[in-house]
Amino acid sequence: MKKAELRNIYKTKRQQLSEIDVDNLSIAIANQLLKLHVWQASFYHVFLAIEEQKEVNTDYILNILSGKDKNIVISKSDFKTYEMTHYLLTDNTKIKKNKYNIPEPIDGIEIKNENIEVVFIPLLAFDKQGNRVGYGKGFYDRFLSKCRPETIKIGLSFFEAETEICDIFNSDITLDFCVTPEQVYKF
């Protein structure tokens, strides 16, 4: 299937989830993540969920990372350049939703792309080859292209893999893993 078609299908599927569904599925994803051998790194990039889009609630992942005393990195999006700036999440970090309802840090200690070792990636759909469909602005492809090649890229999805996304671009960055409530996919 093509990205635009998948985008529509999975936005609709997510909107049909109740708040309780989102919460339970998010907990299941966090539990599946514990099976991965990615917890030796120091800097973990985590997206903060857009509640209105019924994204995976990453609070449970934040709790895991805090419990393991890891450095948590969150981003601020620039919708003019489609680039993200990354900041260390601390007890003093002030978070505010932007006009697209994305929770973002107001300011803080900036972290360079090359310091980030593991990235948890929001997505709408993914396929069995590790390709993914997001909202279509390319924020994560730009960001991931500037990370070190060994940076571990982990997609988070409420739904299982599609067979194939047929309109992949050279600039699309594939996942190393995708974690769903039911299983961990390795690519």
In short:
The chain has 187 residues and is an alpha/beta fold. It is built from four helices and twelve strands; from the N terminus they run ααβαββββββββαβββ. The protein has helices at residues 3-15, 19-33, 59-67, 139-145; strands at residues 43-45, 71-78, 83-88, 95-97, 103-105, 110-111, 118-122, 125-126, 132-133, 152-156, 177-179, 184-186.
Strand order of the largest sheet: 6-3-2-1-7-10-11-12
Low-pLDDT residue intervals, each spanning 5 or more residues: none
Tell me the series of helices and strands, N- to C-terminal. Answer: HHEHEEEEEEEEHEEE
SS-based class: alpha/beta
The largest sheet is:
8 strands, mixed
Q: Helix fraction?
A: 10-25%
The tally of strands reads 12
**Which term fits the overall shape?**
globular
User: What radius of gyration results from the CA coordinates?
Assistant: 15 Å
Strand residue content: 15-25%
* Termini gap: 19 Å
Specify the number of helices: 4
Overall mean confidence score, pLDDT:
96
Outline the secondary-structure elements:
Layout lengths: L2 H13 L3 H15 L9 E3 L13 H9 L3 E8 L4 E6 L6 E3 L5 E3 L4 E2 L6 E5 L2 E2 L5 E2 L5 H7 L6 E5 L20 E3 L4 E3 L1
Parallel strand pairs: 1-2, 1-7, 7-10, 10-11
Antiparallel strand pairs: 2-3, 3-6, 4-5, 8-9, 11-12
Task: Provide a descriptive summary of the structure in words.
Substrate binds at residues 50, 55. One of its GO terms (molecular function) is ATP binding. This is 5-formyltetrahydrofolate cyclo-ligase. Its cofactor is Mg(2+). Its EC number is 6.3.3.2. The protein is α/β, with parallel strands linked by helices and 187 residues long. Helix content is 24%, strand content 24%. The protein is built from 4 helices and 12 strands; from the N terminus they run ααβαββββββββαβββ. It has helices at residues 3-15, 19-33, 59-67, 139-145, and strands at residues 43-45, 71-78, 83-88, 95-97, 103-105, 110-111, 118-122, 125-126, 132-133, 152-156, 177-179, 184-186. The strands form 3 sheets. An 8-stranded mixed sheet has the order 6-3-2-1-7-10-11-12. Strands 4-5 form a two-stranded antiparallel ribbon. Strands 8-9 form a two-stranded antiparallel ribbon. The radius of gyration is 15 Å and the shape is globular. It starts with a helix and ends with a strand. The relative contact order is 0.20. The model has no long low-confidence stretch (mean pLDDT 96).
